[in-house]
Amino acid sequence: MAAAEPRRPNVLLILTDDQGWGDVRSHGNEQIDTPVMDRLAGEGARFDRFFVSPLCAPTRASILTGRYHLRPGVWGVTQGREILRADEITIAEAFRASGYATGCFGKWHNGEHYPNHPIGQGFQEFVGFCAGHWNNYFDTRLEHNGEPIQTQGYITDVLADAAMDFIREHRCDPFLCYVPFNAPHTPYQVPDPYFDKYKERGLSDADACIYGMVEKVDENIGRLLALLDELQLANDTIVIFLTDNGPNGQRYNGDMRGIKGSVHEGGVRVPCFVRWPGRIAPGTVVREMGAHIDLLPTLADLCGVPLPETKPLDGTSLKPLLLGQAVDWPERAIFTHSTKGNQMNPLCGSLRTPRYRLTVESPTYQLFDLIADPSETTDLAQREPEVYAKLSAEYERIYQDAIAGGFERPPVQVGHAVFPRVEICAPLAFLSGGLEFKGKHGWANDWITNWTTTQDEVRWDLHVVSPGLYRVTLLYTCPEEDVGSRLQIQVGAHVTETMLVDAHDPEPVPSPDRVPRKEVYEKIWEPLGFPPVQLDAGDQCLVVRAIDIPGRQVMDLKAVILRPARPV
Q: pTM here?
């Protein structure tokens, strides 16, 4: 009788949002308690130098694809700049093709609509949200496979619960469970005991909340590990923990220069711990550099998952380093980039070698020796011209190669049977006239305001997969004195109209923020339905305009929702 094939290892990939390298006690921060993260670091491998991108969506794109984030079209965090191209092969697609169950539980931030949605990028199960941040962390509405759901409790607990349900369901199958927690990203909300604990240690309100949020994540990682023990899966599961960029504020970060958004060491160096009992020796310290681009090839190598035909990877398998195999490891240079403003340019990026970091910032190039000067205080560009010339040429080569695919925003696809309901939020709109975003930046959860003239228009670009009649709904607020506007929606040659007759002007939802937020607050939005309109196949523009405005303004507009009038 042939011997049974050995079980392929599971993967539990845990990512946190805006937690810096210094937000872990075992990295020298005695003000924070992270016993589970510290235990992970000791029970497996800890990377001494692990790098990601300076911002959320770019890091996620590189984790998913094994490629520098500019290649798959991700160059920002909002207004379509965060969307991962649908033709990229993700880690979920690779593992699913090899028989793995795949689930994602948390913040996606690489596209809200199918096929850019997690369900279109290889995940069979998704609970969380697709935007760059969420408005409220208690008893909030999230999404389950494209449909809204109401949750109870604190969001970190909710996401861990969903991941645990997935692990239980697939305990007999190999699984890839991706848990991108959204803490400690703003808004600063955490249950009282966690906040009070750190206030008693003398921390500011912001730091007390951040450290409390990190400890709450730590507690939930402990729950996930305990479940693996309970199901006797711990020895069969590779657990990876890392964070997505530097800290979201000035706090302990190992005396490194830079925070979130910076291309210096403090903006892109993060904790990364990898545990696989019986295979990765406890207490392993990896001195060689690793990066987010390495996770896909590394995990595929460890799990025996063949990589499908894909676009060229920038990452490399770190398996020999994790398993303590003697190898002659080549020197490498790791590239990063951070967009400033609304235009792509090469003038905010860096290149890291084992010794040096070359930085490029508006438009000055600087060179730092990270061994002699880990806080990057002394520019060596003039003193070491050969190193400077070599690294600056390499940076420019990688940058030009990475942007070759361009950055055209993909249209929102409408008419997929698997995702019949399509909600397109304000930040993906193109605004004309005097229209503007309430929060000015057009970040996630923002809305459109200052709609005062009939020349103002809101436009969304669509690609209609299944033509036919579609119901159209706007989500709005409008005070009593401004009702009565007549609105028109035009899609190609087809038009539908209605009148806004019901006032709806609620106060923002009460939010238990510990610190006032920079982002907009949550509101309850009212639906305004239109008669069905024909959508023709192919690329279309959906334009919303007012053809009569009896008051001082039309409305504040949060989103447009499209749903087939008949099943697709």
A: 0.97
